[in-house]
Structure formats: C-alpha cells, structure tokens
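Whiteboard transcription, Tuesday session. T.W. wrote the structure tokens on the left side:
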C-alpha cells in the first residue's frame, strides 16, 4: 500500500522535478509541467458515483501520453480508474491503497515521460527502458 508521501518521494527522485500545488493539493512537475497530483474526490465527484461505492483512501492523478494510453492503462491496471470529469483528458486516477512501490514508480515514470520536454527525457535514457 502506497501513500501520498511515497508518491512525493518517488516523484521527487525523478530528474528536474519540483513539488508545487494545484487546487491546494500537492503536485509534481517537470520543467513546469505538472505530471501528477493528489486528487481527492469533490462532493460533485462523490455524487457522480451514484450507487457505486466511492474508492477509499488517497487518490493520485497521473498524466498519460494520450487517450489511447489512458484506455490501455485502465484496462491493464485494476488499481486505476477514471471519472466523468476526466473524460477526454489523458489522466488516470490511482488508488494508492492498491499499489506497491514498484507499480507506483512505473506509473510516475510514465507520467513524467508524458510531460517531460524531449531534451530532458533524452538526457535520461535509463527512464526510457
């Protein structure tokens, strides 16, 4: 089980990452481009779940390359989900209670690669493997 602090440590270990805030929540950016952030559910989000159970625990939003990648991640990783507010946006939500360190790192590295400028990503081929 991962926490927001685990996400913070993992994200901060990536090249050229700065911690910032978005909508008063912790966020991580590479070259000024946010690639992950703490994403608690709003009251409107909770209402949209209707009769379905609302996922518990901390939620991390992570960028993905594009909508095709979003669909692939959602299909391959049961610990990820989306909400109607994110329709058409290349972002998946990660239930941190359902992931361990290696999975969290993989998701954050992929998010970092989705937002890092090409020159920055090219300077770190170890992350491309």
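and on the right, the sequence the group agreed on:
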């Amino acid at each position: 089980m991962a926490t927001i602090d685990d996400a913070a440590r993992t994200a901060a270990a990536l090249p050229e990452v700065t911690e910032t805030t978005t909508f008063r929540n912790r966020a991580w950016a590479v070259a000024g481009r946010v690639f992950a952030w703490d994403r608690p559910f709003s009251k409107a989000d909770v209402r949209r779940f209707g009769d379905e159970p609302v996922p518990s625990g901390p939620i991390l939003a992570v960028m993905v390359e594009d909508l095709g990648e979003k669909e692939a991640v959602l299909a391959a990783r049961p610990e990820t989900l989306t909400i109607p507010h994110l329709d058409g946006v290349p972002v998946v939500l990660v239930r941190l209670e359902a992931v361990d360190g290696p999975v969290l790192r993989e998701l954050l590295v992929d998010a970092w690669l989705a937002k890092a400028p090409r020159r920055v990503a090219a300077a770190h081929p170890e992350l491309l493997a």
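Someone added at the bottom: The CA atoms of residues 79 and 95 lie 6 Å apart.
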